[in-house]
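We treat protein structure as text, and this decision shapes the records that our systems exchange. Because each token names a local backbone shape, the row as a whole describes the fold. For reference, a complete record is included directly beneath this paragraph.
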Amino acid sequence: MMIEGSGPEVTDRERDSRSEVGDRPAETAGGASQSGTPRITPPSLSQPSPPTPNGGGAEQTPGLSIALEQLRAFYGPAEAVRGLDLEFHANQVTAIIGPSGCGKSTMIRCINRMHEEIPGARAEGRVMLEGLDVYDPSVDVVAVRRAIGMVFQKPNPFPTMSIFDNVAAGPRLTSSRRGDLRETVESALRSAGLWEEVADRLDEPGAGLSGGQQQRLCIARSLAVDPDVILMDEPCSALDPIATLKIEELIDQLKRRVTIVIVTHNMQQAARVADRTAFMLDGRLVEVGPTQEIFTTPHDPRTEEYVTGKFG
């Protein structure tokens, strides 16, 4: 997948997968890792609500908001994101739209500090998770990626792991909820709308599922560690219309328990799933607002030109 901006192409799908789960050290009862690095412990992680089958009928749990303050991102000397100020509201879906190369994917990778994994890449500014700067030197980057999960453009299940082990990988590495691991896996798969399709073949390779099922497996893998935010980088671009519909229905259900940021080139998809939409151009934020307003009565003429297909 090409990282937007002037950066290199990242093709190691397994590296993306490891970054999502992270090489998490074991944690002590006090919430710190054995290395002594503090971990993020936002309120919604202290008492996670068990998901209901397929997310249906679940009560809304308080999500966490994210605020970007003068965010800048670089690939070497090239600046891909230029002084972005943007807030993602709790328990809402925010769609990020804009032409290829405008910095959408780079921006969301900065939110959970994956951008810095690319050689020569760096970020400046602040990313505030309910008032906590995730770039503060005292914050454990592993804890950041536990609280802020990510789903990539192409499904990337761990190729050598079974369906069960793909979902269980995160809880095992964080030493969390070991006592009810099977329940954790089942709950995550149910929340991802996949349990009924795989319940009788959990020992089979995750890579053997269809493309749409693999993407939902990756979503289940993120949900298994109880994130507060899920970032989605064009999660449906490689899927057929039926699989895309299932992902969109899942997004609508998941926002009851997490905050969702989705990058998409599909204007119809943004209109269907997003509560708010932000339009980016040349690394800058042009306009953000309620989705209906962005698509019907935008304030900036550049936004109108883009959503009506005049460029991009």
Summary: Residues 49 and 176 are 15 Å apart (CA to CA). The chain has twelve helices and ten strands. Strands lie at 66-75, 78-88, 93-97, 121-129, 132-133, 148-151, 229-233, 259-263, 276-281, 284-290. Residues 1-39, 42-57 have pLDDT under 50 and may be disordered.
